[in-house]
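Hello,

Following up on my earlier ticket. Below are the two sequence lines again, exactly as submitted.
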Amino acid sequence: MNTNENKKPEDVIKLAQSLRWQLGDFHERVMESTFTHAAQIAERATTRPGQKPRFDFDQAVDHIVTSRIWGFPIMFLLFAFVFWLTIIGANYPSAFLSDLLIGKIYPALHHLAKTIQSPWWLSGLIIDGIFLATAWVVSVMLPPMAIFFPLFTLLEDLGYLPRVAFNLDNIFKKSGAHGKQSLSMMMGFGCNAAGIIATRIIDSPRERLIAMITNNFALCNGRWPTQILIASLFIGVLVPAHLAGFISALAVISIALLGVLLTFLVSWGLSKTILRGEVSTFSLELPPYRPPRILQTIYTSIINRTLFVLWRAIVFAAPAGAVIWLVSNIQIQNLTLAEHIINFLNPFGILIGLNGIILLAYIIAIPANEIVIPTILMLTILITGMSSYGSGAGVMFETGENSTFKILQAGNWTLLTAVNLMLFSLIHNPCSTTIYTIYKESGSIKWTLIASLLPLFLGFLVTFFVAQIWRIVTGIY
Amino acid sequence: MNMPSNKENQFGSTGFPDISVGNCQNCPIHNKSNLLKLGVDMQDWDFVVALAGNPNVGKSTVFNALTGLKQHTGNWPGKTVTRAEGGYEFGSYRYKIVDLPGTYSLLATSLDEEIARDFILFGSPDVCLVVVDATRLELNLNLVLQVLEITDRVVVCLNLLDEAKRHGLIIDERRLARDLGVPVVPTIARMKQGLDRLLEEVNNVATGKTICKPYRIEHESPQLKEAILKLSDEIIKLYPDLPNVHWVATRLLDGDERIAEAFLNGEIGNLEIVITENEETQTVESQVEAVK
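Thanks for your patience. The regenerated structure is below:
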């Protein structure tokens, strides 16, 4: 090697290659010696007590929560408890907030507008459109989020989430997907855009795409309030009052579970068709249980998640409020723009057990799932012309559950509409933030389109069949 | 900084006393008041700190404690998938700290490992802060040893000491520091314990007050040794000032494509120049600081 003093980089690489061939299992040998050295250093620095800990608490708990028999029931009960607490607990602050924002501040604003003699369209757009939409989102969204997120974060802090992943791992593998998809799915229950980013922990592009496309089936926090509200209005009332909270929670959790089931089914379908390939193996580390820092968790999850999501909702609700007010006040040929669109969409809506109002609401609410319900209510008022609620076109009204229920009944809502809305809320296109995130993460228009349209198509399919079967069974058309 | 042994540097700063600020600043108890959390305000930083470690050892917790940011932390591996960046000011220096995804190794077999590895290697951090789980020292040291192959400027944060205690483990951090040849600071990041000394040590390594003598793996097999030496000789001829020749040789022997590419297009050479330049300016700076 003394002969050629000035080797080029290419030559050095070639030398490396030839040396590698001579050495054979170089990689293993290097790793092995790293391991040996690490073990030696660790051993020298560590003193272990004379006897083993008498009782390994973590292992004992893991034996139960990841057991074949108890794993799933415990998971189910734990989440059912969390939702039950959210549904029951959210009522009181919700009532307080809506009383304050809509009962007191809203009339005060109108009074103010009259005093300063602002033009009708300006106060309409700002107070009846933007303020009401925002107030609605705050009073209905904030309480459940402020309860749900800290509880979820406590579970996460405790170390329960990886156990959930462990329990689900086998099913994911059978679906042809990566076991780590369970973790990105769990993130998706918070926010789908965050879930999409979390799929980065999956190394294989095939499995990562599957995880991205199916993440939308994890019911995100923007859709929880819709589920909770509709479940308490239409399903809770089917049973005696003392059971209502429990049954509503059960309904919501069934929807969430259906989402999980769909995740498996769609993953399986994708891995058998357009995303065929081998399942890669991985090792999942079960972290130790750590006592959660309760106060800090509550603080950070309120600051971090709750206010963040709320802020997002408000940012999207305000312009949507303006859009709602505009489409219901711009008139073309004696009908408002909203009425034109709703009439156009209605036949298809009815066919799939929904209605034109709901479909229009989903179009307006693409930026944020949070504002679907307020949009639906407002449009329903407009179409049915219920003058006792709200004070004109494009105006949202009180948000008490009773009046909401009355409005929806006036809009010809049945139990079928409610059930199908819950289904469609689970199975439809992701919100625009998520779509954009999918595009950024996959870098492909094709996969973004598939990830957006596949759930929408599935949603139409599911609601269509549910509606047909429902109508045949009940005989109500 | 003429004292290469970091045994003494384990207990706060020794060497040159900082005349300008008096003894208070050298006292670890006082340090918290020196910490200014800058959040995402990271303009004009003096030093870059890379935060590495195995998954779920508390990197993000350390990150939050230092920057005052609220990176979401959760008790599951793989939570941090992107690089989070934040800033803090300690003493008279501004630090940018980069929270890397947790990895078990730096072999770049997955996207997270690649992000972490590339940043430690090409992001030229001034200090690499490796957070380790005291209850799984053996597993965690694998990563530490791999980081030590790449860079000298390492501080080990021996985290989760409370859990180690719960498991009845006693860890002699001074022994560990001696063996690894870099500062080791015991912490319980969740309770914000030990962070004062951590900041102090990061500061010492960044400013060159502490010179590390990192532990480098000697491979037992003569065959292996010979091959690495042979290749290292050739690499040194091409890039005479490369700080981690041994590691580059190992990676080339392992057929690491990213490193081979950096080797071919001269990226590795740039890396070394940047580091030496930094080193010079820092020493000058700290001397100026001391004179003031």
